[in-house]
Every structure is written in structure tokens, then in C-alpha cells.
Design goal:
alpha/beta, Glutaredoxin, 5 helices, 2 domains
Length: about 180
């Protein structure tokens, strides 16, 4: 009886460990990496001026409306810790660089939930919801945070995965 109980406890612990590892792997695959583990890839200079984005307030915009200005699309979610840090970086970035358009695109559902979150933290730049993951699919977003850097001619220049601090963003956007 004692031996059977011991085996049951060991089996439960083993199953628990396996499930924990599986959850950790799934989580990391969703949220991407951070810091040194972040990645960047050059984009094929795809023209995206005709792409429409529905902002959280219901307004539909075309990226071509920002021709002449650089744009950063920030794919994020309220449950993603690196994404929340990235939003705080953008709070400073948008104040210091008003010439750059930032559009943070939530990959989770629920406009009201996201709207309350934005109001709670006082974010002031443009926000959108990625309904049906249309934009995520278009840009090949598999991890968050992901940033898409678009040049003044509405062409994708870089796609960045992971958290990027202020100095990194400035270097990436301004090429310094």
C-alpha cells in the first residue's frame, strides 16, 4: 500500500513537471524573447501604404496617410510582460520623437478590455485591435512583442521580435 502510494506521488510529480515544461514552452513561443534574445530581420521592402487598420476608436486609417513619416507597428497583448515594458518604452519614445507614428496593435480580443487598459495607464498614441489576426498574418507575427518598422515611402524596412529599449529603437528608426 505504501509502495503504491509512493509510486502515485512520483507519477503525479512527473506529470506535473511535464505539464509545467509544456506550458513554459507554449508561453515562450507566444510572447517571444527579451533583450539579447530579441531578433531582427530585414524585410523585403514591401509596400504597405494600402493596408487599412481599424483603430480602437473605430476609425479606419490607411498607412499611406502617414507617407513622409516613419511608422512603427507594435504587436502586443495585455497579458504579455515584455509587451507591457515595451508600451512603457513607447510612452517615452512618443514624447521624445513626435515625428514617428506609433500604432500599438493588440492581438487579443475585446475592444472594451483593451480600451480600459489604455485609459488606465494613460497611453496617448494610436491603438488598434487585430481582429481576426489579419495584420499578424500579413506581417508574419508569431511572437510578441513584434515591431514592424515602416519607412517614409510606406515600405516595410524591418521586423523586430522581442523587447527593444529606447536606445535600440532610436538606433533602429534613425539608423544611428
Amino acid at each position: 500500500m505504501v509502495r503504491r502510494r509512493r509510486y502515485s506521488v512520483i507519477a503525479a510529480l512527473l506529470i506535473s513537471a511535464i505539464v509545467s515544461v509544456a506550458i513554459a514552452v507554449a508561453y515562450l513561443s507566444l510572447v517571444g524573447s527579451r533583450g539579447e534574445g530579441s531578433s531582427s530581420r530585414e524585410a523585403a521592402s514591401t509596400y504597405v501604404g494600402d493596408l487599412e487598420i481599424k483603430l480602437i476608436n473605430g476609425t479606419v486609417i490607411k498607412l499611406s496617410e502617414f507617407r513622409g513619416r516613419k511608422v512603427i507597428l507594435d504587436f502586443w497583448a495585455t497579458w504579455c510582460k515584455p509587451c507591457l515594458r515595451q508600451l512603457e518604452v513607447f510612452r517615452v519614445f512618443t514624447r521624445e520623437h513626435p515625428d514617428i507614428v506609433v500604432i500599438s496593435i493588440s492581438v487579443e480580443l475585446g475592444v472594451e478590455k483593451v480600451r480600459r487598459f489604455i485609459e488606465r495607464y494613460g497611453y496617448t498614441w494610436l491603438f488598434a485591435i487585430d481582429e481576426g489576426y489579419r495584420l499578424s498574418k500579413y506581417f508574419g507575427v508569431r511572437f510578441i512583442p513584434t515591431l514592424v518598422v515602416i519607412d517614409e515611402d510606406c515600405r516595410v524596412k524591418r521586423i523586430l521580435v522581442g523587447l527593444h529599449e529606447l536606445e535600440d529603437l532610436e538606433r533602429i528608426v534613425y539608423g544611428t
